[in-house]
Amino acid sequence: VQLVESGGGLVQPGGSLRLSCAASGFTFSSRAMRWYRQAPGKVRELVAHISSAGGSTNYADSVKGRFTISRDNAKNTVYLQMSNLKPEDTAVYLCNTLIGYNYWGQGTQVTVSS
User: Fold this and answer.
1) In this prediction, what percent of the chain has a pLDDT beyond 70?
2) Are the CB atoms for 54 and 71 separated by under 8 Å?
């Protein structure tokens, strides 16, 4: 199982970013996917979840209405569209799936600062 995130960077408050997570080594279309984030000194937080077919999504209260999780099962990729970013969104964002064991990507840094 391999999960590779990309798309992070430095953005000003109010800006947008789209994160991608390319998956391999398992049947992507059969697995729910999640985005987590971890800020320095804070507990890892579940940001968004999407079902295997993409028909069901859930979000942390802190990102509802600003973030959208989606997936393309033909490309084995899950996305996180982030809008109206705030400084408190600054964190390393990690892709996750559970296949009897929690698998994680290496993470991508998102920094929201003016």
Assistant:
1) 100
2) yes
